[in-house]
Amino acid sequence: MKPVEKITVNRHSSVEERQRALYEIYGQVLERQPYAYEHRLLAKAEQDFLRDKIGVKRFLKILGHSEVYLNEFYYSSSNLKFLELCFKHFMGRAPFDHYEMSHYSDILMRDGVNALINQMIDSEEYRKHFGCFTVPYPSQEEFYPSPKAYLETDILNHELHGQRGHVMPTMVWHELGLDCDGGSCDLQGQPTLSFPEPEVSERLEFLQVLRRMHPEDLKEIAASLPPTQRASLSQALAKSAR
């Protein structure tokens, strides 16, 4: 990954510096600059930020809770894809493992979108990386939990919104042996589910995570799969339930 310039603002920052920070926040969180009508929806928060009434963290929460963000990412995505996008936008990385996805999925389903975003922005990891004054940026960890975690973060941070569809998060299409680069998922030549080594333990862990997903998420994932892969997933889930 190329070095990222950190954009930081505090009480001593000029209006011009805050305007630049606002531009970078939109680039990181919305993956684009707002349209004119979206600027109107966010006008008060923007003015409060530019006048130093609120800081980066508070503005991020307002933006993440707004209809501008939810319309762009939440309403058009599966819960799992939305979770992955929240990690990208607010933490600068992909989810590290199934446990992390399951943990935040529980927060999303139990407490809602606002609680999910607050939990990320108020986390100790966020504090260590960005503090109160730095705009979130793509992660450049010195050490990753696994090569897979690095790969998925690199893919996600270079992914254009919608490039790989709105249903399947990266870790899931990797686990299923799919290629989703075109926005729809195709098999990579495997007739059945494929799992990386160690095959047995990772397969069981992955299937258990799938079984804990919300039924609507499973329906969306199944609908996005080719028929052969859909049948294979159903059989694997049925076996893991015994």
Strand order of the largest sheet: 1-2
> What proportion strand?
under 5%
**CATH fold node name of the largest domain:** serine acetyltransferase, domain 1
Order of secondary-structure elements: HHHHHHHHHHHEEHHH
Give the helix tally: 14
Shape: elongated
Low-confidence stretches: 190-202
Number of strands: 2
Overall CATH architecture of the largest domain: Orthogonal Bundle
List the domain count as a whole number. 2
Report the major sheet: 2 strands, antiparallel
Give the overall average pLDDT.
Answer: 82
CATH class term of the largest domain: Mainly Alpha
Would you mind describing this structure in some detail?
The chain is about 60% helix and about 0% strand. It is mainly alpha-helical and about 240 residues long. The chain has two domains: about 15-75; about 80-135 and about 145-240, serine acetyltransferase, domain 1 (Orthogonal Bundle). Strands 1-2 form a two-stranded antiparallel sheet. Helix 4 runs antiparallel to helix 8 (about 115-120), helix 6 packs across helix 7 and helix 7 crosses helix 8. It is elongated. The model is unreliable at about 190-200 (pLDDT under 50).
SSE order and pairing:
Blueprint: H1 15-29, H2 36-41, H3 43-50, H4 56-65, H5 67-74, H6 79-91, H7 98-111, H8 113-121, H9 124-130, H10 147-157, H11 170-175, E1 178-179, E2 186-187, H12 199-212, H13 215-224, H14 227-240
Antiparallel strand pairs: 1-2
Helix pairs in contact: 4-8, 6-7, 7-8
